[in-house]
Write a structure and sequence with these properties.
The complex is a heterodimer of chains A (90) and B (131). Chain A has 90 residues and is mainly alpha-helical. In chain A, 80% of the residues lie in helices and 0% in strands. By secondary structure, chain B is mainly alpha-helical. The radius of gyration of chain B is 17 Å and the shape is globular. Classes of the chains: A mainly alpha (90), B mainly alpha (131).
């Protein structure tokens, strides 16, 4: 077998699942398992397709986590600003 | 490329300092888990911010109490980075168990069972919920 095993993004998906707050990484783990099993069965094209899916789910998890974090920070600053400047008008 | 790694390192350092000096249990302005905030269910990652604080203070028991899978996840990441580093930089040919056909399934089952168990409000399952 001269074809290289595609990256399965398992470590990255676990990072998203356990250290971020969104279970999207779990879907990434499912695709990671497909990369390994399809490659072991000799299905190189299928393994490559699963690798791409695993990557996009992992990135979606990161992006979703980032959006939630940024929204949260903006929200906290807006509320904090409102609390400080809003009250100082009185 | 080198600038990217320096940036990531600096970001990591700032985040580490933040989580070292501030205990997320004591303040309300750290981001909450969106799943917990909307549904009241813990996700597999709940408690990781508090676990980071405990880890930076080297309280292993505290890390386990906040999120029992935190140390396992950390070990997998370190293992993956070490094997990748040895294989690419030092041109070794080590087998990476991340690519074993059974590894992702075993981890998936562990995470799913952990997810269900930590949401059960009965002893001893409730020990898995973040404190």
């Amino acid at each position: 077998m001269d074809q290289k095993l595609p990256k399965n993004y398992l470590a990255e998906s676990i990072l998203v699942t356990i250290f971020c707050c969104l279970p999207l990484g779990i879907v990434g783990i499912v695709f990671a398992s497909q990369v390994n099993s399809k490659f072991a069965a000799g299905d190189y094209e299928g393994a490559l397709a699963s690798s791409k899916m695993a990557k996009s789910w992992m990135i979606w998890g990161l992006v979703a986590g980032g959006i939630v974090l940024i929204t949260y920070i903006v929200f906290v600053f807006a509320l904090g600003g409102l609390a400080i400047f809003g009250l100082s008008n009185y | 490329m080198r600038l990217k790694y320096i940036g990531l390192l600096l970001l990591g350092l700032v985040v580490a300092l933040l989580y070292f000096y501030i205990n997320p249990s004591n303040v309300s302005y750290f981001p909450k888990c969106p799943l917990y905030a909307t549904t009241g269910f813990y996700c597999p990652g709940c408690g990781s911010q508090r676990a980071t604080h405990e880890l930076l203070h080297l309280h292993a028991l505290g890390v386990l109490r906040q999120n029992s899978l935190y140390i396992l996840g950390l070990l997998i990441l370190i293992y993956h980075l070490m094997v990748s580093l040895l294989n690419t930089v030092f041109h070794k040919n080590l087998y990476n168990y991340i690519y074993h056909p059974k590894t992702p399934w075993i981890l998936l089952i562990i995470i799913l069972v952990f997810w269900v168990f930590r949401n059960l409000p009965y002893y001893p399952f409730n020990l898995l919920a973040p404190q």
